[in-house]
Amino acid sequence: MSLARQALNLPNLISLSRLGLVAVFVWLVFGADQIGWAGVLLGIIGGTDWIDGYLARRLGQVTELGTFLDPLADRLAVAVSVVVGLVVGVLPSWFAWALIVREALIGIGALYGWTRGVRRLDVRRLGKLATLLLYFSITGFYLGRGFQLPGLVAAAYLVGVPGLVAYYAVGVQYLTDMRVAVGGVGSDGGEQVS
């Protein structure tokens, strides 16, 4: 199936829409100075994360493009919201920098594995939980600061700190998985991750 044809199925259109909404998010922060509404949009982007994957499986429309776009939309939304939140002071700087450092370390580990033939690692439940907690936390900081709701900022801390700890813990697990996968790459180029 051609790349253009893959892009036109419903799950991939949703993923592409989520990518486009990241640009709208940036405009809301910098162009319209609407931090709270940017938080609402971030919540929508995060809240619709499961829809594209669910529909792809349900409709039998899982494609290579979709398996690339869905996590790209997630990563881009989180990365942009963290960097933008750091720049405009929505996120506490220690929190934003901790997320940036973790992503850089995981990126270096992924690049290391990719250059040694590892093409995929299994997703861990702790990783999904950590991402969910961080989505809630980051969104809470935007909503709380944008709409001046101090209780929501406090809740963002309460969810964000355990999310950050879990994010680092699963990061260590992923790096360990990568080390094992690099050692298990067979002569046929496939990894032997269990």
Quick rundown:
The protein is mainly α and 194 residues long. It contains eight helices and no strands.
Question: How would you summarize the topology of this molecule?
Answer:
Blueprint: H1 3-7, H2 10-31, H3 35-47, H4 49-58, H5 64-88, H6 93-115, H7 125-146, H8 150-184
Helix pairs in contact: 2-3, 2-4, 2-5, 3-7, 4-5, 5-6, 6-8, 7-8
DSSP strand (E) fraction? under 5%
Describe the main β-sheet briefly: none
How widely separated are the two ends? 30 Å
Mean pLDDT: 89
Radius of gyration: 18 Å
Order of helices and strands: HHHHHHHH
CATH superfamily: CDP-alcohol phosphotransferase transmembrane (TM) domain
Count of β-strands: 0
Percent of residues in helices:
over 70%
List the main descriptive attributes of the protein structure presented here.
mainly alpha, Four Helix Bundle (Hemerythrin (Met), subunit A), disordered C terminus
Could you explain the architecture of this structure?
The protein is an all-alpha fold. The chain has one domain (3-184): Four Helix Bundle (Hemerythrin (Met), subunit A) (Up-down Bundle). Helix content is 80%, strand content 0%. The protein is built from 8 helices and no strands. The protein has helices at residues 3-7, 10-31, 35-47, 49-58, 64-88, 93-115, 125-146, 150-184. The two termini are 30 Å apart. Residues 187-194 have low confidence and may be disordered.
